[in-house]
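ok trying this again, last paste got cut off
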Amino acid sequence: MSYTVLKTIHLGCAFITYVLFFIRGFWLITNSRPLSLPGMVVIPHVVDSILLLSAIGLVVLTNQYPGEQTWLNAKLIALVVYILLGTSAFRLCHKRTAKLVTWLMAQLVFLYIVFVALTRTIYPI
């Protein structure tokens, strides 16, 4: 698979992941029923799996490995933080305020991941 195709898949999945996370978070905060639909449980996992596989493909294709690239290390660490915050918002937090705060924090971390990916630097201005 070519670099352009893999990167397009990766960027598309990143966009879809964010949109789904935003929508699911909005439903979570507003106690909307669509959050419990079977598709809203499965689809994000499928998209996230494709996102991860395309990321691994890009790493291998470009020979830019996390241990060697500071910006990739930052993305991986931020990804773990994003996953933990998302898990907290959707599963661990029981109060609406805590859900909202962790959901918003996860979005900030996601934006940091995008910043690092675009600039290949770990320091925001």
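PB: full thing came through this time. The CA atoms of residues 71 and 120 lie 5 Å apart.
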